Amino acid sequence: MADLYSKLGVKRGADEAEIKQAYRKLAKELHPDRNKDNPKATERFSDVTSAYDLLSDRDKRAQYDRGEIDEQGNPKGPFGFGGGGRGGGGFHPGAGPGGASFEQGADFGDIFEGIFGRSRGSGQGRQGPFGGNFGGQAARPQKGADVSYRLAVPFEDAAALKPQRITLANGKTVDVKLPNGVETGTQMRLGGQGDEGPGGKGDAIITIDVRPHRFFVRDDDDVRLDLPVGIDEAIQGAKVRVPTVDGAVMLTVAPGTSSGKTLRLKGKGFHRKDGSRGDQLVTVQIDVPADDAELKAFIETWSTKGTRNPRANLGV
């Protein structure tokens, strides 16, 4: 199986910012909405998202780097046995000493003491076949497996942190509050909403997928928008309605505004982890009618009077 770092195209030892930047680039390229006719891209999107989910969690990344868990986040058991996770939890059944079977959650101390006998003396625990001590306490009952979910969140809802509703595998419907700094790949944990186990229920792990928008574009914590403006509005100035993630607002376009000018709406972007918000960056795009006889006649008359060269600063 491919190394998680190579899936994201980063080196081992890469810092959090490098991992985040690499993931954002790949997620943008491979997102299913941009690759509807390319199932391999969708599969890669899922792979890089899973890789980012694990490597962006400091504790899990440390466990992965030490070889304690595999690429799916499942614990690597002693003697090379894999495990963990739904659909493959615990140790896989297999032949043990004397034909014994290693079942899920099996206690190796009990298996070996049946072959080599219990150590003598009190307070010393059980002795292993090579003189090792398995500890004096019984193994703690394992919790049930965690259950993973993916939650598609509308762009505006993610920016404004609107609560989302999700139906779990057990049929229960819950409302979840999106955290500050939410983005595609953000994980949320619902305690006790996973599978049942001897030690209690596991958790529900929800991975967020922020959906693309038809005219808003996310730029880090800011939101970008290209705003069509009429020629009259650009020349004379105007107050125009502008959509934002929080609803429409009025924006002042100054007289003589040119295409490409960017105006800023403070606090209309995504919430940062510290609770502050990014801005909305509105880029003016002057909308020229394709076939307007009156406008064409006016321009022909106006151009005969001689106009300034808008490209003079370019030396042409």
Distinctive features:
elongated, alpha+beta, HSP40/DNAj peptide-binding domain, 316 residues
Describe it.
The chain is an alpha+beta fold. Among the domains are: 78-116, no CATH class; 147-210, Sandwich (HSP40/DNAj peptide-binding domain), CATH 2.60.260; 217-307, HSP40/DNAj peptide-binding domain (Sandwich). It contains 8 helices and 11 strands. A 4-stranded mixed beta sheet has the order 6-7-11-10. The chain has a 3-stranded mixed beta sheet with strand order 1-5-4. It has a two-stranded antiparallel ribbon with strand order 2-3. Helix 2 packs antiparallel against helix 3 (39-55). It is elongated and about 95 Å long. The two termini are 58 Å apart. Mean pLDDT is 80; it is low at 79-136.
Concise summary:
By secondary structure, the chain is α+β, with helices and mostly antiparallel strands. It has helices spanning 4-8, 16-30, 39-55, 58-65, 108-116, 155-160, 231-236, 293-303; strands at residues 147-153, 164-167, 173-176, 187-190, 204-210, 217-219, 222-230, 238-242, 249-253, 262-265, 280-287.
